[in-house]
Amino acid sequence: MKYKRILLKLSGESLMGEKQYGIDNERVKQYAEDIKAVHDKGLEIAIVIGGGNIFRGLSAEKSGMDRAQADYMGMLATVINSMALQDALEKVGLKTRLLTAIKMEQICEPFIRRRAVRHLEKGRIVIFGAGTGNPYFTTDSAAALRAIEIKADAVLKGTRVDGIYTADPEKDPNATKYTEISFKEVYDKGLNVMDMTAFTLCEENKVPIIVFDMNKHGNFMKIAIGEPIGTLVR
Q: Is 93 annotated as contributing to ligand binding?
């Protein structure tokens, strides 16, 4: 395996599958199977999931809701997604722990860095819910922060597209894909990889980011063993 410990960042929208809203159980099941295949090879895996399939704080703010209130609601949406993925992972035989930045003792553990690392060392899949626990920060920022805290070797961002392109490949048929790009080039070209806070955290702490298509079965394994799919930012 190329890595020992990684943080996998999934968007909430990715859990929708072909639906317009909510959680597609078939998509979550596919993710669980892909994660199990990689975990069985000995990789330590932590996960952060967004909440955009249920609630988006930024969208609610635009319609007049207080930003902090909207962001807290978004954090709760990430916990719902985390619980759905936790259930799917346990159904394929994995041991998991859900740690959240907002205390919810009945359903999860509070985030404690040393405890999270210990769970990973014991071979458990660790899911981080509720973002950073602070409004005005995205789940991308939470992913970057948690990756640094647990000393992950890389942040793997699973998306609907298979890497970073010169333009949006869903809108521009002439867009070309980068196989590798530097943090500086991403800044200079104004490419949208993660939000700027998350991106800067990764750059300053020398944590590479790999953007890849998580929806294609087997891609996660290819990334884990070092095949050059997706786009590497370093």
A: no
